[in-house]
Amino acid sequence: MSRDQSAAGAAALRNETAVGAAAQLLLLVLLGTAIDLGPAGWLTGLAFAAATWAVLTRALQRSWLASFGAANRVTLARATLVGGVTALVADSFESPTPVTALVSLTAVALILDAVDGQVARRTGTSSSLGARFDMEVDAVLILVLSIYVATFLGPWVLLIGAMRYAFVAAAWMLPWLNGQLPPSTARKTVAALQGVLLLVVGADVLPYPVAFGAALLALTLLSWSFARDIRWLWRTRAARAR
Questions:
Q1: Which of 14, 16, 116, 227 could form a disulfide with 74 if both were Cys (CB 3.0 to 4.6 A apart)?
Q2: Which pTM does this prediction carry?
Q3: Which bin fits 181, alpha (ψ -120 to 50), beta or left (φ > 0)?
Q4: Residues 6+ apart with CB under 8 A from 202
Q5: How confident is the model at residue 151 (pLDDT cuts 50, 70, 90)?
Q6: What is the largest CA-CA distance in the chain?
């Protein structure tokens, strides 16, 4: 690849992240117009947009991707929706929550979560960066939803959103936790259920006992999944070290 081609590819990747940031700003403007988004929502949404643009731009600079790819565009669209959800949750601490908007954005984001992987496989554009991007967007959405649900079910719900970040923090001190896990349908199913269950609870359509039970089920399944993976990493640490 020539220097000119490399520069053109880098410029194209920067344009993709710039379009994502612009889409995030447009969504915030639409939310601000439709529901009178408050200062907390605006500031949180803008901070999310800036952080996403900065982290993704740096990741792309360090990757060997020649193009952004259709799957990453789907994930970027999902990240934009998650930014909108984040802004709405932040705004809910100052004003009544627009539940319809919150549920709609979250539902579309969850649907797109099943789309980007299929697009990557069909177009042959799977990459480690794309997988990590997808995972981080999922983690942020679950964290934000758990914060929202915790406001009426109790702070224990925050464990759902914090568990993945606690695992990452533990891996800094325990390197064996950084091992590559084998593919698992159970792990993927549990991860998908987190968003669905928190969305249903957050929609405020269930009686309190049922909503409490649904959130508790989400936490129980997630705890089981993490415990299962940690056990596998512990039992295979010696073999992986060799």
A1: 116
A2: 0.91
A3: beta
A4: 99, 102, 103, 106, 145, 148, 149
A5: very high
A6: 63
Tokens of 116: 């980007």
Angle at 172 between CA 116 and CA 178, to 5 degrees: 50
Question: In one letter, which amino acid is 189?
Answer: T
pLDDT at 3: 47
DSSP code at position 203: T
Give the integer Cα–Cα distance in Å for 81 and 196.
Answer: 16
Nearest to 31 by CA among 45, 18, 19: 45
> What is the rounded distance in angstroms from the CA atom of residue 46 to the CA atom of residue 24?
8
Alpha helices in 63-184 (DSSP H): 70-91, 99-123, 128-153, 158-173
Looking at residue 155, its pLDDT comes to 96
How many distinct helices (H) and strands (E) make up the chain?
A: 9, 0
123 band by pLDDT with thresholds 50, 70 and 90 = confident
